From TrEMBL:
The modification 4-aspartylphosphate is found at D55. InterPro entries: CheY-like_superfamily (IPR011006), NreC/VraR/RcsB-like_REC (IPR058245), Sig_transdc_resp-reg_receiver (IPR001789), WalR-like (IPR039420). Keywords: DNA-binding, Phosphoprotein, Transcription, Transcription regulation. The keyword Membrane does not apply. The lineage of its organism: Bacteria, Bacillati, Actinomycetota, Actinomycetes, Pseudonocardiales. Residues 4-122 form the Response regulatory domain. One of its GO terms (biological process) is phosphorelay signal transduction system. GO terms for molecular function: DNA binding. This is Two-component system response regulator. It holds the Pfam family Response_reg.
């Protein structure tokens, strides 16, 4: 199966790099590109990509709003959206996921991580960059209280966790 990819990125150099890298993959076809939100909305509807690589900071409707519109309930065949941004903030992560993004990676991720991120989303799975996952786990762990006190671990016993 060839993964149809739409690139939505306002910086020409980054957009060109994505097109070059993703287009060189034997299982991917870059079907279009957009440098602003309005073009991204139109291209997504017209081209029916499998995965949209989305920057958050697009002129016009931003990447979050574009994601919300193309991944909303009721869309016949919504694409999977992989948000790729330079900004690792809880606000951006939460807003992207609420809008319907299936993945969130940082622009400083290794190229193979970006390529595999597209493949992961195309398989119907979700993905968060390790730095985001670490932050979310840390925040979750400090907010949740254990339901009960766990007994001390005794190596070799059935109750041992290690």
């Amino acid at each position: 199966m060839t993964i149809r990819v739409l690139i939505c990125e306002d910086h020409e150099l980054v957009r060109t790099a994505y097109i070059t890298v993703f287009g060189a993959q034997p299982d991917m076809e870059v079907v279009g590109e957009a440098a602003d939100g309005a073009t991204a909305l139109e291209a997504s509807e017209r081209l029916s990509p499998d995965v949209v690589v989305m920057d958050i900071h697009l002129p016009g409707p931003d990447g979050i709003e574009v994601t919300r519109r193309i991944a909303r309930p009721g869309v016949a065949r919504p694409p999977k959206v992989l948000v790729v941004t330079a900004f690792n903030t809880d606000e951006y992560v939460c807003e992207a996921l609420r809008a319907g993004a299936s993945g969130f990676l940082l622009k400083d991720s290794p190229v193979i991580e970006l390529v595999n991120g597209i493949r992961t989303l195309a398989r119907g799975e979700s993905l968060l960059t390790p730095a985001v996952t670490r932050n979310l786990i840390g925040r979750f762990a400090t907010r949740v209280r254990p339901a009960r006190h766990w007994p001390s671990c005794h190596p070799g016993s059935a109750r041992c966790c290690g």
